[in-house]
Amino acid sequence: MAIKESNALDLLKGTDIIVDGLDTMTARRAVNQASYALKIPYVYAGAIEYYANISTFIPDETGCLYCLVGDMEDNPENTCANVGVSPMLLSLVGAIEVREAVSLATGRQPRLAGKLMHADIDVLGFDTFDIARSDACPVCSAAPSTSSSESDELSITMLCTNSFSISPSKPLALDLESVVTRVETQRLLRRKTSVIIKFASGISVTLMNTGSAVIKGAKDKDEALSVYHTLVSH
């Protein structure tokens, strides 16, 4: 399921530490807001090509992601799907995130609390900067807003594998047997909570009973949504 403002509080409630594995600023803003509303530390990381930014935000102790990026939006031309990301960089970033999370879990001060690490493995460069807490930040310097103006529209994201991840705004309760009996397919792999559907056209769909799906082989978002709607009726 895609995380967003409308469901971030419910999905993250009861979590001890949030570790970022996201690929959009929209999702990260929702996580950042929930992090401060629920008082949960947030280990942030973003990576593209050979570059990465990593930080740890601790409610009531450091600034937050909004203090760092403000209202920055995703650049559709500079996505993992378009320009890629080095697997070596992801391994490095993941290891640093785990190091920060372990520090939090064991009561030690994270090295990147209130700091931003910028990594460039193309030149093997690593720089660390202090992050100032903004007095005007609407998230960590004021009462966090937990309201959402989002509709019940589907969330669709293009992944690095040229697949499309589609999620409803709220979990569904699909009858997967009913789904597979009404579509003509070339191959099926049934599991308890999901089904993999392979169409003769070459498109494959991994569909969860919650309504979330990963569609591979679609030429664009419109085709991916068309396939999704063939399987899932709201």
Q: Major beta sheet, specifics?
A: 6 strands, antiparallel
Number of strands: 11
Coarse shape: globular
CATH architecture of the largest domain: 3-Layer(aba) Sandwich
Number of domains: 2
Multimeric state: single chain
Lateral strand order in the biggest sheet: 6-7-11-10-9-8
Straight-line N-to-C gap: 16 Å
The low-pLDDT segments are 143-151
- CATH topology call of the largest domain: Rossmann fold
CATH class of the largest domain: Alpha Beta
> Could you say which structural class the secondary elements and strand pairing correspond to?
alpha+beta
Q: Would you list the SSEs in sequence order as H and E?
A: HEHEEHHHEEEEHEEEEH
Mean pLDDT: 85
Proportion of strand residues: 15-25%
Name the CATH superfamily classification of the largest domain. NAD(P)-binding Rossmann-like Domain
What is the helix fraction of residues, given as a range?
A: 25-40%
Structure description:
The protein has 234 residues and is of the alpha+beta class. It has two domains: 8-130, Rossmann fold, CATH 3.40.50.720; 155-231, TATA-Binding Protein, CATH 3.30.310.10. It is 27% helix and 24% strand. The chain contains seven helices and eleven strands. The protein has helices spanning 8-12, 25-38, 65-69, 80-83, 87-105, 176-181, 221-231; strands at residues 18-19, 42-48, 51-57, 115-120, 125-130, 155-158, 163-167, 187-190, 194-198, 204-208, 213-216. A hairpin with a 4-residue loop joins strand 10 (204-208) and strand 11 (213-216). The protein is globular, with a radius of gyration of 20 Å.
